[in-house]
Amino acid sequence: MNAEDFDPLTPETFDSPYGVYSDLRARCPVAHSNAWGGFWALTRFEDVRDALAAADVFITSKQNVVPKLAFTGRRPPLHLDPPEHTPYRRALNPLLKPERIAILEPIIRKTAAELLKPLVAAGRCDVCADYSSHLTIRVFAQWMNVPEEMVADLQHMGRAYNIAVQSANGEMVRETSLKLYDIARAMINQRREHPLDPATDPTTALLAARVDGEPFPDDMILGTIRQVLVVGIIAPTIVVGSIAVHLARDADLQRTLREDLGLMPKAIEEFLRLYTPYRGFARTANRDVVINGRKIAVGEPIALLYASANRDEAVFKNADQFVLDRPNIAEHLAFGMGPHVCAGVPLARLQLRVAIEELLKCAPRFELAGEPVQTRFPEIGALSVPLKFAG
């Protein structure tokens, strides 16, 4: 067994992981942990980028996150390698184009304002539990055309699944995952009976897709819907929480952005670099590889730590600081890169921008009302953020 270079199970605060990753980048950039059966972690930007670019060597079909969470079958497109994953991306990509996503902006803005009004009036809230988790599920439900009667169940089960993952409760992860499959199955059954326009409905688009004249297998359509359900609701909740922590600590930046919301697109990119919601997705090398002098055997899981790579001082000067006009911000890896780059980038950017704009517009000033609660692997960031609003 390889020696252990770090322990990801060590209790964390909101800020502490970044110090650990800084130390690893300097001391042990290709690190090994014995947690969860053992895995490697790439911490430097260059190594993470190179692994993402070499999709023919570093595959995702064996294990796509650390710790391994998939107990119930393959969920395209993330669980498949090219070219098998490509038709699923092709079916969904048109529904995620910027011009298609832009239609949602008035709905997102109206929903955000409605959620914030009673919270600001009350003087305090948990920005994740009371705001971002509700906003993301409503936005996602709009994009996904989730039937109204299923929205509450999806909200409840999505949050329960996340809590199960955070508490490393394997039995609860399995139970909540199966219930999310039930929701996905119900959505598919409804679209089979009442199809919508595949240009505007993801489920109908998957049902209508053909490869060599044949439809996608039923289990793979189910897996795709199940995958999209979770990715679409957990990550945005965490990022909004993390941004709220940063702004609550920096009254000057709060004021700057509130006075000029035109700065928000740049700010969101820098926040994404600083507060990447996933520590990193996993890959498995299909042959022995040597990275920075360390041999990784074929089949051993490798976590590509986006959250560390995006704070690599070799690439981003003053990497732990918020820099509004960072010249190379486009290099950040918050959405990954290569064939598995996040398909929902336009929706994520729009949702984050509007969520923070409305928070700044509705609340004249806010600060922390307690310590944020930190997520655990595979996510990173705020799971709970108590805020108090000032007049």
Structural overview:
With 391 residues, the protein is α+β, with helices and mostly antiparallel strands. It has one domain (16-390): Orthogonal Bundle (Cytochrome p450). It is built from 14 helices and 14 strands. The chain has helices at 16-27, 45-53, 86-92, 98-101, 105-122, 127-144, 148-166, 170-193, 202-208, 218-249, 251-259, 264-274, 306-309, 345-362; strands at 30-33, 39-42, 58-59, 124-126, 210-211, 214-215, 282-285, 289-291, 294-296, 301-304, 365-368, 373-374, 382-384, 386-390. A five-stranded mixed sheet has the order 1-2-10-7-3. Strands 4-14-11 form a three-stranded antiparallel sheet. The protein has a two-stranded antiparallel ribbon with strand order 5-6. Strand 12 (373-374) and strand 13 (382-384) form a beta hairpin. It is globular. The termini are far apart. The mean pLDDT is 93.
Features of the shown structure:
alpha+beta; 391 residues; Cytochrome p450; 5-stranded mixed sheet; 3-stranded antiparallel sheet
**What fraction of residues sit in β-strands?**
5-15%
Percent helix, as a range, is 40-55%
Envelope shape: globular
Tell me the number of structural domains: 1
The CATH homologous superfamily is termed Cytochrome P450
CATH architecture: Orthogonal Bundle
CATH topology name, in short, is Cytochrome p450
Estimated radius of gyration: 20 Å
Cα separation of the termini: 58 Å
Q: Figure out the total of helices.
A: 14
Number of DSSP strands? 14
- SS-derived structural category: alpha+beta
In the CATH scheme, the class would be Mainly Alpha
Report strand order across the widest sheet: 1-2-10-7-3
What is the average of the pLDDT values?
93
Order of helical and strand elements: HEEHEHHHEHHHHEEHHHEEEEHHEEEE
Largest sheet: 5 strands, mixed
As residue ranges, the low-confidence spans are none
